[in-house]
Amino acid sequence: VFPKCPLLRVHGPIGLAQLLETSLLNLVNFASLVTTNAARMRLAAGPDCRLLEFGLRRAQGPDGGVSASRYAFVGGFDGTSNVLAGKIFRDLPVSGTHGHSYVQAHRSREDLPADCILNGVDIAEAALQWRGELGYEEGAALHEGEFAAFVSYALANPTTFVALVDTYSVLDTGLRNFVTVALALAEAGFEAKGVRIDSGDLAYLSKEARQLFDRTADDLDAGTYGAGRGSLAESLRKCYVVASNDINERVLLSLRDQGAKVDAYGIGTHLVTCQAQPALGCVYKLVEISGEPCLKLSQEPGKTTIPGAKACYRLVGARGQMLLDLLVPAAHAAPEVGERVLCRHPFDSSKRAYVTPSRVLELHAPVFEGGRRVGASENLRELRAYCQRQLGEVREDVLRPLNPTPYKTSVS
User: Fold this and answer.
1) DSSP character for 310?
2) pTM above 0.90, yes or no
3) Phi, psi at 191, each rounded to 5°
4) pLDDT digits 0-9 by tens, 31-45
Protein backbone atom coordinates (compact mmCIF):
# COMPACT_ATOMS: atom_id res chain seq x y z
CA VAL A 1 0.00 0.00 0.00
CA PHE A 2 1.35 3.42 -0.99
CA PRO A 3 0.49 6.95 0.19
CA LYS A 4 -3.03 8.15 -0.66
CA CYS A 5 -4.17 4.63 -1.54
CA PRO A 6 -7.02 3.58 0.81
CA LEU A 7 -5.97 0.57 2.85
CA LEU A 8 -9.52 -0.11 4.06
CA ARG A 9 -12.94 1.12 2.98
CA VAL A 10 -15.80 1.07 5.47
CA HIS A 11 -19.47 1.51 4.48
CA GLY A 12 -22.17 1.81 7.14
CA PRO A 13 -24.13 4.07 9.49
CA ILE A 14 -21.90 6.97 10.48
CA GLY A 15 -22.24 6.33 14.20
CA LEU A 16 -21.24 2.70 13.91
CA ALA A 17 -18.48 3.40 11.39
CA GLN A 18 -17.07 6.12 13.65
CA LEU A 19 -16.91 3.73 16.61
CA LEU A 20 -14.60 1.48 14.57
CA GLU A 21 -11.96 4.20 14.01
CA THR A 22 -9.69 3.59 16.99
CA SER A 23 -9.93 -0.20 16.85
CA LEU A 24 -9.19 -0.40 13.13
CA LEU A 25 -6.29 2.04 13.29
CA ASN A 26 -4.82 0.21 16.26
CA LEU A 27 -5.02 -3.11 14.42
CA VAL A 28 -3.76 -1.77 11.09
CA ASN A 29 -1.00 0.66 12.09
CA PHE A 30 1.24 -1.63 14.13
CA ALA A 31 0.71 -4.62 11.84
CA SER A 32 1.58 -2.59 8.73
CA LEU A 33 4.54 -0.93 10.44
CA VAL A 34 6.22 -4.16 11.60
CA THR A 35 5.48 -5.97 8.33
CA THR A 36 6.96 -3.08 6.34
CA ASN A 37 10.00 -2.94 8.62
CA ALA A 38 10.51 -6.69 8.21
CA ALA A 39 10.12 -6.45 4.43
CA ARG A 40 12.74 -3.68 4.24
CA MET A 41 15.15 -5.79 6.30
CA ARG A 42 14.49 -8.79 4.03
CA LEU A 43 15.38 -6.66 1.01
CA ALA A 44 18.52 -5.39 2.74
CA ALA A 45 19.66 -8.88 3.79
CA GLY A 46 18.95 -10.49 0.42
CA PRO A 47 16.79 -13.49 -0.47
CA ASP A 48 19.18 -16.23 0.65
CA CYS A 49 19.89 -15.07 4.20
CA ARG A 50 17.75 -16.39 7.06
CA LEU A 51 16.15 -13.77 9.29
CA LEU A 52 14.99 -14.57 12.82
CA GLU A 53 12.89 -12.30 15.02
CA PHE A 54 14.50 -11.97 18.48
CA GLY A 55 12.55 -8.98 19.82
CA LEU A 56 10.28 -10.22 22.62
CA ARG A 57 12.34 -8.72 25.44
CA ARG A 58 12.25 -5.25 23.85
CA ALA A 59 8.69 -5.30 22.49
CA GLN A 60 5.82 -3.16 23.80
CA GLY A 61 4.46 -5.71 26.25
CA PRO A 62 3.50 -9.37 25.76
CA ASP A 63 0.76 -8.57 23.23
CA GLY A 64 3.10 -6.40 21.19
CA GLY A 65 5.76 -9.10 21.30
CA VAL A 66 3.46 -11.84 20.00
CA SER A 67 2.02 -9.56 17.31
CA ALA A 68 5.49 -8.51 16.19
CA SER A 69 6.51 -12.16 15.79
CA ARG A 70 3.53 -12.76 13.54
CA TYR A 71 3.91 -9.67 11.36
CA ALA A 72 7.69 -10.04 11.05
CA PHE A 73 7.08 -13.48 9.53
CA VAL A 74 4.51 -12.06 7.11
CA GLY A 75 7.05 -9.41 6.08
CA GLY A 76 9.66 -11.99 5.14
CA PHE A 77 11.36 -13.27 8.30
CA ASP A 78 11.91 -17.01 8.59
CA GLY A 79 11.10 -17.61 12.24
CA THR A 80 11.00 -16.30 15.80
CA SER A 81 12.53 -17.04 19.18
CA ASN A 82 9.10 -16.39 20.75
CA VAL A 83 7.86 -19.83 21.77
CA LEU A 84 4.37 -18.58 22.69
CA ALA A 85 3.97 -17.02 19.24
CA GLY A 86 4.96 -20.33 17.68
CA LYS A 87 2.33 -22.09 19.77
CA ILE A 88 -0.43 -19.62 18.88
CA PHE A 89 0.45 -19.37 15.18
CA ARG A 90 1.26 -22.89 14.10
CA ASP A 91 2.69 -21.81 10.75
CA LEU A 92 5.33 -19.75 12.55
CA PRO A 93 8.67 -21.62 12.96
CA VAL A 94 10.48 -21.25 16.30
CA SER A 95 14.26 -21.03 16.44
CA GLY A 96 16.84 -19.77 18.89
CA THR A 97 20.04 -20.38 20.82
CA HIS A 98 21.19 -20.42 24.43
CA GLY A 99 22.24 -17.24 26.24
CA HIS A 100 25.51 -16.00 27.67
CA SER A 101 24.32 -16.90 31.16
CA TYR A 102 24.17 -20.56 30.14
CA VAL A 103 27.86 -20.45 29.27
CA GLN A 104 28.76 -18.47 32.37
CA ALA A 105 26.93 -20.95 34.59
CA HIS A 106 29.43 -23.63 33.54
CA ARG A 107 32.73 -22.86 35.26
CA SER A 108 34.88 -25.90 34.52
CA ARG A 109 34.82 -29.44 33.19
CA GLU A 110 33.47 -30.48 36.57
CA ASP A 111 30.12 -29.07 35.40
CA LEU A 112 29.90 -31.65 32.62
CA PRO A 113 26.97 -34.11 32.86
CA ALA A 114 27.78 -37.45 34.44
CA ASP A 115 26.75 -39.22 31.24
CA CYS A 116 28.13 -37.72 28.03
CA ILE A 117 27.41 -40.76 25.83
CA LEU A 118 25.50 -40.16 22.61
CA ASN A 119 25.06 -43.03 20.14
CA GLY A 120 27.95 -44.82 21.81
CA VAL A 121 30.30 -41.81 21.60
CA ASP A 122 31.48 -39.95 24.69
CA ILE A 123 31.03 -36.41 23.35
CA ALA A 124 33.26 -34.79 25.98
CA GLU A 125 36.15 -37.25 25.52
CA ALA A 126 35.85 -37.14 21.72
CA ALA A 127 35.89 -33.33 21.76
CA LEU A 128 38.97 -33.29 24.00
CA GLN A 129 40.71 -35.68 21.63
CA TRP A 130 39.91 -33.35 18.72
CA ARG A 131 41.29 -30.45 20.75
CA GLY A 132 44.65 -32.17 20.86
CA GLU A 133 44.65 -33.29 17.23
CA LEU A 134 43.71 -29.83 15.96
CA GLY A 135 46.47 -28.24 18.00
CA TYR A 136 44.10 -26.13 20.07
CA GLU A 137 45.97 -26.93 23.31
CA GLU A 138 48.94 -24.93 22.10
CA GLY A 139 49.13 -21.23 22.93
CA ALA A 140 46.11 -19.67 24.64
CA ALA A 141 44.08 -22.06 26.76
CA LEU A 142 40.48 -22.68 25.81
CA HIS A 143 37.83 -21.74 28.37
CA GLU A 144 36.86 -24.96 30.17
CA GLY A 145 33.50 -23.64 31.41
CA GLU A 146 32.53 -22.70 27.86
CA PHE A 147 33.63 -26.14 26.69
CA ALA A 148 31.43 -27.79 29.32
CA ALA A 149 28.49 -25.58 28.32
CA PHE A 150 28.82 -26.50 24.64
CA VAL A 151 29.05 -30.21 25.43
CA SER A 152 26.01 -30.04 27.72
CA TYR A 153 23.98 -28.12 25.17
CA ALA A 154 24.98 -30.46 22.35
CA LEU A 155 23.92 -33.48 24.41
CA ALA A 156 20.51 -31.90 25.04
CA ASN A 157 20.10 -30.65 21.45
CA PRO A 158 22.16 -32.89 19.17
CA THR A 159 20.10 -32.10 16.05
CA THR A 160 19.83 -28.33 16.60
CA PHE A 161 23.17 -27.43 18.20
CA VAL A 162 23.96 -23.74 17.71
CA ALA A 163 26.61 -22.31 20.05
CA LEU A 164 26.88 -18.71 21.22
CA VAL A 165 30.63 -18.15 20.88
CA ASP A 166 31.26 -14.59 22.08
CA THR A 167 30.87 -14.97 25.85
CA TYR A 168 34.65 -14.71 26.32
CA SER A 169 36.57 -14.54 23.04
CA VAL A 170 35.22 -15.54 19.64
CA LEU A 171 38.62 -16.28 18.08
CA ASP A 172 40.66 -17.50 21.04
CA THR A 173 38.17 -19.92 22.57
CA GLY A 174 34.56 -19.74 21.31
CA LEU A 175 35.00 -20.96 17.74
CA ARG A 176 37.62 -23.55 18.71
CA ASN A 177 35.47 -25.04 21.45
CA PHE A 178 32.59 -25.22 18.99
CA VAL A 179 34.64 -27.01 16.33
CA THR A 180 35.79 -29.71 18.76
CA VAL A 181 32.23 -30.38 19.97
CA ALA A 182 30.84 -30.24 16.43
CA LEU A 183 33.33 -32.90 15.27
CA ALA A 184 32.51 -35.07 18.28
CA LEU A 185 28.81 -34.77 17.40
CA ALA A 186 29.60 -35.76 13.82
CA GLU A 187 31.33 -38.90 15.06
CA ALA A 188 28.08 -39.74 16.88
CA GLY A 189 26.09 -39.30 13.67
CA PHE A 190 24.75 -35.77 14.23
CA GLU A 191 25.43 -32.47 12.50
CA ALA A 192 25.97 -29.26 14.43
CA LYS A 193 24.04 -26.35 12.95
CA GLY A 194 26.40 -23.43 13.55
CA VAL A 195 27.44 -20.54 15.77
CA ARG A 196 25.97 -17.21 16.84
CA ILE A 197 28.09 -14.08 17.25
CA ASP A 198 26.45 -11.40 19.37
CA SER A 199 29.15 -8.73 19.66
CA GLY A 200 32.28 -7.33 18.05
CA ASP A 201 33.13 -6.72 14.41
CA LEU A 202 30.50 -8.96 12.81
CA ALA A 203 31.93 -8.73 9.29
CA TYR A 204 35.45 -9.68 10.38
CA LEU A 205 34.43 -12.35 12.89
CA SER A 206 32.00 -14.01 10.47
CA LYS A 207 34.76 -14.28 7.86
CA GLU A 208 37.11 -15.79 10.43
CA ALA A 209 34.46 -18.31 11.48
CA ARG A 210 33.76 -19.35 7.89
CA GLN A 211 37.48 -19.62 7.18
CA LEU A 212 38.06 -21.82 10.24
CA PHE A 213 35.22 -24.18 9.33
CA ASP A 214 36.31 -24.49 5.70
CA ARG A 215 40.03 -24.81 6.48
CA THR A 216 39.39 -27.55 9.03
CA ALA A 217 37.10 -29.33 6.57
CA ASP A 218 39.78 -29.14 3.86
CA ASP A 219 42.34 -30.64 6.25
CA LEU A 220 39.95 -33.46 7.10
CA ASP A 221 39.43 -34.20 3.41
CA ALA A 222 43.18 -34.19 2.86
CA GLY A 223 43.71 -36.75 5.61
CA THR A 224 45.72 -34.37 7.80
CA TYR A 225 44.12 -35.87 10.91
CA GLY A 226 44.12 -39.46 9.74
CA ALA A 227 42.49 -41.52 7.03
CA GLY A 228 38.77 -42.18 6.97
CA ARG A 229 37.74 -38.87 8.52
CA GLY A 230 36.76 -37.04 5.36
CA SER A 231 33.09 -37.76 6.04
CA LEU A 232 33.26 -35.37 8.99
CA ALA A 233 34.30 -32.49 6.76
CA GLU A 234 30.87 -31.97 5.23
CA SER A 235 29.29 -31.42 8.64
CA LEU A 236 31.65 -28.49 9.25
CA ARG A 237 31.09 -26.99 5.81
CA LYS A 238 27.34 -26.98 6.47
CA CYS A 239 27.73 -25.01 9.71
CA TYR A 240 26.26 -21.54 9.42
CA VAL A 241 27.04 -18.24 11.10
CA VAL A 242 24.28 -16.29 12.86
CA ALA A 243 24.89 -12.64 13.72
CA SER A 244 22.96 -10.51 16.19
CA ASN A 245 23.60 -7.35 18.26
CA ASP A 246 21.39 -4.34 17.44
CA ILE A 247 21.01 -5.20 13.76
CA ASN A 248 19.03 -2.74 11.66
CA GLU A 249 18.52 -2.08 7.96
CA ARG A 250 21.60 0.12 7.71
CA VAL A 251 23.79 -2.52 9.39
CA LEU A 252 22.45 -5.22 7.07
CA LEU A 253 23.34 -3.16 4.02
CA SER A 254 26.80 -2.38 5.43
CA LEU A 255 27.55 -6.04 6.19
CA ARG A 256 26.57 -7.02 2.66
CA ASP A 257 28.89 -4.34 1.27
CA GLN A 258 31.72 -5.68 3.46
CA GLY A 259 31.21 -9.22 2.21
CA ALA A 260 30.31 -10.60 5.64
CA LYS A 261 29.98 -14.39 5.77
CA VAL A 262 26.71 -14.34 7.69
CA ASP A 263 24.07 -16.94 6.89
CA ALA A 264 21.39 -15.73 9.30
CA TYR A 265 20.57 -12.71 11.44
CA GLY A 266 18.78 -12.52 14.76
CA ILE A 267 17.09 -9.12 14.87
CA GLY A 268 15.18 -7.79 17.86
CA THR A 269 15.04 -4.19 19.06
CA HIS A 270 15.12 -2.38 15.72
CA LEU A 271 12.55 -4.75 14.23
CA VAL A 272 9.81 -4.87 16.88
CA THR A 273 10.13 -1.27 18.09
CA CYS A 274 10.66 0.09 14.57
CA GLN A 275 13.24 2.59 15.79
CA ALA A 276 13.68 4.07 12.32
CA GLN A 277 9.99 5.09 12.34
CA PRO A 278 8.23 4.17 15.60
CA ALA A 279 4.70 4.96 14.36
CA LEU A 280 2.78 4.68 11.12
CA GLY A 281 0.51 7.59 10.25
CA CYS A 282 -2.56 5.81 8.90
CA VAL A 283 -5.68 7.97 9.28
CA TYR A 284 -9.42 7.29 9.16
CA LYS A 285 -11.40 9.94 7.26
CA LEU A 286 -14.97 10.47 6.17
CA VAL A 287 -15.04 10.76 2.36
CA GLU A 288 -18.73 10.33 1.52
CA ILE A 289 -22.06 10.71 3.35
CA SER A 290 -25.56 10.07 1.97
CA GLY A 291 -24.04 9.63 -1.47
CA GLU A 292 -22.32 13.03 -1.40
CA PRO A 293 -18.50 13.26 -1.46
CA CYS A 294 -16.80 14.92 1.52
CA LEU A 295 -13.51 16.79 1.52
CA LYS A 296 -11.16 17.71 4.34
CA LEU A 297 -9.01 20.71 3.46
CA SER A 298 -5.64 21.62 4.89
CA GLN A 299 -2.78 23.99 4.18
CA GLU A 300 -0.66 20.84 4.15
CA PRO A 301 -1.30 18.88 0.91
CA GLY A 302 -0.50 15.65 2.70
CA LYS A 303 -3.48 16.17 5.02
CA THR A 304 -6.00 17.08 2.33
CA THR A 305 -8.26 14.12 1.58
CA ILE A 306 -9.46 12.92 -1.81
CA PRO A 307 -13.28 13.02 -1.71
CA GLY A 308 -15.65 10.18 -2.48
CA ALA A 309 -15.67 6.41 -2.02
CA LYS A 310 -12.87 5.03 -4.16
CA ALA A 311 -11.88 1.73 -5.71
CA CYS A 312 -8.14 1.17 -6.06
CA TYR A 313 -6.55 -0.60 -9.01
CA ARG A 314 -2.91 -1.50 -9.55
CA LEU A 315 -1.77 -1.14 -13.14
CA VAL A 316 0.97 -3.56 -14.13
CA GLY A 317 3.18 -3.17 -17.19
CA ALA A 318 4.27 -5.65 -19.84
CA ARG A 319 7.38 -6.58 -17.84
CA GLY A 320 5.27 -7.65 -14.86
CA GLN A 321 6.22 -4.61 -12.77
CA MET A 322 3.85 -2.19 -11.05
CA LEU A 323 3.33 1.08 -12.93
CA LEU A 324 1.08 2.94 -10.50
CA ASP A 325 -2.03 2.66 -8.36
CA LEU A 326 -5.14 4.31 -9.78
CA LEU A 327 -8.01 5.63 -7.64
CA VAL A 328 -11.40 5.48 -9.37
CA PRO A 329 -14.85 6.40 -7.99
CA ALA A 330 -16.28 3.22 -6.50
CA ALA A 331 -19.29 3.29 -8.84
CA HIS A 332 -17.18 3.64 -12.00
CA ALA A 333 -15.97 0.84 -14.24
CA ALA A 334 -12.52 -0.65 -13.72
CA PRO A 335 -9.66 0.14 -16.14
CA GLU A 336 -9.38 -2.30 -19.03
CA VAL A 337 -6.29 -4.29 -19.94
CA GLY A 338 -4.71 -2.99 -23.15
CA GLU A 339 -6.66 0.30 -23.15
CA ARG A 340 -5.06 3.69 -22.53
CA VAL A 341 -5.97 5.21 -19.18
CA LEU A 342 -5.48 8.88 -18.33
CA CYS A 343 -3.87 9.05 -14.88
CA ARG A 344 -3.72 12.38 -13.04
CA HIS A 345 -1.78 13.61 -10.03
CA PRO A 346 -4.25 13.99 -7.11
CA PHE A 347 -3.32 17.65 -6.43
CA ASP A 348 -1.39 18.94 -9.46
CA SER A 349 -3.51 19.10 -12.60
CA SER A 350 -0.43 19.72 -14.78
CA LYS A 351 0.91 16.26 -14.01
CA ARG A 352 -0.82 13.59 -16.04
CA ALA A 353 0.08 10.64 -18.21
CA TYR A 354 -1.54 7.97 -20.32
CA VAL A 355 -0.86 4.40 -19.22
CA THR A 356 -1.69 1.17 -21.05
CA PRO A 357 -1.74 -1.67 -18.51
CA SER A 358 -0.98 -5.28 -19.36
CA ARG A 359 -2.66 -6.37 -16.15
CA VAL A 360 -5.13 -4.69 -13.79
CA LEU A 361 -5.41 -5.77 -10.16
CA GLU A 362 -8.31 -4.72 -7.96
CA LEU A 363 -6.76 -4.11 -4.54
CA HIS A 364 -9.92 -4.09 -2.43
CA ALA A 365 -11.94 -7.20 -1.61
CA PRO A 366 -14.86 -7.67 0.84
CA VAL A 367 -13.83 -8.81 4.31
CA PHE A 368 -17.03 -8.23 6.32
CA GLU A 369 -20.55 -7.96 4.93
CA GLY A 370 -23.67 -7.74 7.04
CA GLY A 371 -21.62 -8.24 10.19
CA ARG A 372 -20.15 -11.55 8.99
CA ARG A 373 -16.71 -12.50 7.73
CA VAL A 374 -16.75 -13.32 4.02
CA GLY A 375 -14.08 -14.99 1.93
CA ALA A 376 -11.51 -17.54 2.99
CA SER A 377 -8.90 -16.54 5.55
CA GLU A 378 -5.25 -17.06 4.60
CA ASN A 379 -2.64 -18.66 6.83
CA LEU A 380 0.66 -16.98 7.66
CA ARG A 381 2.63 -18.81 4.99
CA GLU A 382 0.16 -17.73 2.29
CA LEU A 383 0.31 -14.12 3.52
CA ARG A 384 4.11 -14.23 3.58
CA ALA A 385 4.28 -15.64 0.04
CA TYR A 386 1.82 -12.97 -1.19
CA CYS A 387 3.93 -10.23 0.38
CA GLN A 388 7.09 -11.51 -1.32
CA ARG A 389 5.33 -11.79 -4.69
CA GLN A 390 4.11 -8.21 -4.42
CA LEU A 391 7.57 -6.93 -3.56
CA GLY A 392 8.92 -8.84 -6.54
CA GLU A 393 6.69 -6.74 -8.83
CA VAL A 394 7.98 -3.39 -7.53
CA ARG A 395 10.72 -1.74 -9.61
CA GLU A 396 14.21 -1.76 -8.10
CA ASP A 397 14.47 2.03 -8.20
CA VAL A 398 11.36 2.27 -6.00
CA LEU A 399 12.78 -0.19 -3.46
CA ARG A 400 16.36 1.08 -3.31
CA PRO A 401 17.31 2.33 0.18
CA LEU A 402 18.99 5.55 -0.99
CA ASN A 403 16.94 8.14 -2.89
CA PRO A 404 14.17 5.79 -4.01
CA THR A 405 11.85 6.82 -6.83
CA PRO A 406 8.44 7.75 -5.37
CA TYR A 407 5.73 5.31 -6.39
CA LYS A 408 2.76 7.06 -8.01
CA THR A 409 -0.81 6.96 -6.75
CA SER A 410 -2.98 8.63 -9.38
CA VAL A 411 -6.66 9.49 -9.83
CA SER A 412 -8.84 8.96 -12.88
Assistant:
1) E
2) yes
3) -115, 120
4) 999 999 999 999 999
